[in-house]
Amino acid sequence: MSGMVFYKTDEEIEYIRESCLLVCKTLAHVASIIRPGISGAEIDKAAEELILDHGAVPSFKGYNGFPSTLCVSVNEHVVHGIPSRDQIFRDGDLVSVDCGAYLNGFHGDSAYTFALGDVKEEVMELCRVTNTSLYKAIDAAIAGNRLGDIGFAVQQYVEREHKYGVVRELVGHGIGRDLHEAPEVPNYGKRGRGAQLKEGLVIAIEPMVNLGRKEVRTEADGWTVYAKDRKPSAHYEHTVAIRKDHTEILSDHTSIEEAIGKNANVQPVELKIESV
Ligand code: MG
Ligand code: MG
User: Fold this and answer.
1) Rounded distance from Cα 234 to ligand 1 centre (Å)
2) Fewest beta carbons within 10 Å, which of 81, 142, 163, 263?
3) How much is the average pLDDT of 130-146?
């Protein structure tokens, strides 16, 4: 990632939106087929086919040598899990799926965590709080505010109010012609600190939250990041555009949540009421 921040024109934002909507269409398809007994490799194949069918290219496959279209991270796996045939989902699993697509010269990026079958209530609550923290972060991501305001919003809600661990080592990011552009968007921070958010900035905001402690490690595969205490972790991500007087969510989880509603194997993750 270079240090240069590329502010986007309206036209470029529309291209990024198109990529994001394809990502969310892909995640919605994943939401419709995911269930206990299916493997990470199967959902990855379905996702890749859908992206290619739309004339796009998976953003992650080949990125720094990453081998697949999706990152599929189960239970204590935080992010960057590699889907495989041996990765067979079980009832009670928490499955975080991250997807990127490259279309018309621009990337889109979004992620959703699926609760399969009989997931423990404490883990469902982790999902609700993590998902809600994403929207709290987006509320703070307005022109004139600073990067620290975004991180503060997540950290205040997740750590101080709900006593979970916010992962420090992985952060959100600018996005556009490159998947990961400047600036970095941490999920922790201080109010009023960091670079100012300006019109035309497009960023992926992606809280990664651990049920237990915040510390993470990387598995022997060199990719999969896991919670050091091996407790579950959740991850939700939107790509957003900072406009002059509002912030627009370019990705859209509505279709994902509709698909979950029709899939009896997946539990819906409601937002916490206090955020609305
Ligand atoms: Mg992502
Ligand atoms: Mg991202």
Assistant:
1) 13
2) 163
3) 98
Q: Is the bond preceding residue 183 a cis peptide, omega within 30 degrees?
A: yes
Expressed in angstroms and rounded, the spacing between residue 123 Cα and the centre of ligand 1 is 21
**Chain segment 160-179, per-residue pLDDT in tens:** 999 999 999 999 999 999 99
Domain chopping of the chain, boundaries: 10-275
Confidence (pTM): 0.97
Residue 110 Cα to ligand 2 midpoint, Å, equals: 7
| Spatial separation of the C-alpha atoms in residues 206 and 108, rounded to whole Å | 13
For the CA of 110, the nearest ligand: 1
CATH ID of 10-275, from 3.90.230.10, 2.40.50.100, 3.30.450.90, 3.40.630.30: 3.90.230.10
